[in-house]
Amino acid sequence: TAGLTLAAHLSEDPNVTVLVLEAGNANLDDPAILVPAQYLRLADERYDWKFVTTEQRYCNNRQYVWPRGKGLGGSSAANFMAYIRPSVGDVDAWEELGNPGWNWNHYLKYSKRSEKWVCVKKIGCHFLTHVRFTDPSPEQTIKYRQTSEERFHGRNGELEVCFPPLIMDGEAPYQMVLHSSVAFLEPNLVRNNLLVLPGANVSRLLFQEPDDLSASKDLSVLKVEEVEFSRGEATLTVRPTRDVILCAGTLKSPQVLDLSGIGNPSVLAPLGVDCKIALDGVGENVQEHIYFLWWAYSMFARDLSLVSESQQGIHTLGLAGFTFTPMQQVCPNADELITSHCAKLKSLYQDGKISLALWEQYQIQMRVLQSETSVDMEWTTIPQCHTFRTQPEDGKQYMTVLVALNRPFSRGSIHIASRDPVEQPLMDPHYFEHDFDMQLLVEGLKFARKVAEEEPFRSCIVREVDPGPAVQTDKEMREYIIDGLMTAFHTVGSCSMLPREKGGVVDSRLKVYGTENVRVVDLSIVPLHIAAHTQ
């Protein structure tokens, strides 16, 4: 996603030549990608890398699929189309953790540059992307919003309920997904200084050998001389004249660094990888939004033909509406659970089981938890069947609510499994290593059911399908959540932007520590997750 966006902007300078190495295929002009609500059809090898986690100790040793976009545009070509800014505190936390300039005021300045109002009910992106609100909103979404606002009005002001615009081309003959390939690459392919090579899987970065360095050169800072990649059966190299920028995403950027000898020596040495730069933080501090599904029979119909005929209907939708709220607004014993969890974390830190760097992150998260105005939990409505668990029945209409965990305390890792760049890395999110993460999701399921019992949302629902009336106790809910848990595709942290002594991989200018010309520009640099979608 970030790679093509960045390449388009860098190539605005005619004196700079940009080469993009894309491991996937082009997948241009593919209706499975361009029709908004068809994202559930993208789970095959043409569009998806189909990553799988390691067995999860706290999830009955289950493994979970981590889909990621395969092709030009990355996961922006396989996303749910939600445009959401993070909160002020979420962004300011990055600066608090040691990154000067990474604060809300700077973020907002650049965020506004990428947006402009097209008309009263439509917003668009100032550069190449047009964004518009769906009109009208689905009936289920409207009633869900009304029920949520009625239930929580007056506790701490109104419940934060937002309804996102969808990323669509305002000039297109029909509403379409405008991913980074369509928005940033295709309009600029006429540039002679912008080159794109699909099917090119980067193997590793090759550094100058000491004999190649001048005597005055700082040997503690290494420079990439070549980038090695495979295309088909051939192994090729390209020699950069400026920076090498990794935009492989949270799941793959740490793999490239590991294979290049940048990482934790204890991880690299057993696999026969010579450690060039010792950075223990590579592949660590992984944080992921996760969710499960509550869904029911709905009373409203759908019609795919409406997309091309009138640019209407639910097939023009991605996610329809969101509810974000503090834990205290949905859980009767929230204060008790939060106090207990914070005490456990403090004890772990005092016993030396939590590093100072992680403790600083947890202090921010605990501060957010204890605030009754900072959001912790999310419910997302979709006017269709969105499930990989129970088989939907033909002729039935469905309404789905995604219950999501936005601020996980569990931290995972991503590391190479071998020296083979084609082999999937070991992806271990450590789901529910902190049981508090599970407790939040259980309370989220209870809340979804409460909203479904109240008007006017109740009038949209025929009956609950999953988890069904047989699931009532907390233990039963936990098993249901483990059984149906999914990634929200918002993984961050594996190349964290932090001080080097605190497990950082890149500095605040996104340069990899110990290198002269390597930067990482993707979500892997985010040191602490946000309670919003990462686009």
TrEMBL record:
Active site, UniProt feature: H490, H533
Family membership noted in the UniProt record: Belongs to the GMC oxidoreductase family.
Pfam families per record: GMC_oxred_C, GMC_oxred_N
Gene source species: Dacryopinax primogenitus (strain DJM 731) (Brown rot fungus)
Keywords in alphabetical order: FAD, Flavoprotein, Oxidoreductase, Signal
InterPro entries: FAD/NAD-bd_sf, GMC_OxRdtase, GMC_OxRdtase_N, GMC_OxRtase_C
GO molecular function: flavin adenine dinucleotide binding; oxidoreductase activity, acting on CH-OH group of donors
Record bears the keyword Ubl conjugation: no
Residues that coordinate or bind FAD: V202
Cofactor(s) needed for function: FAD
The protein, known as: Alcohol oxidase
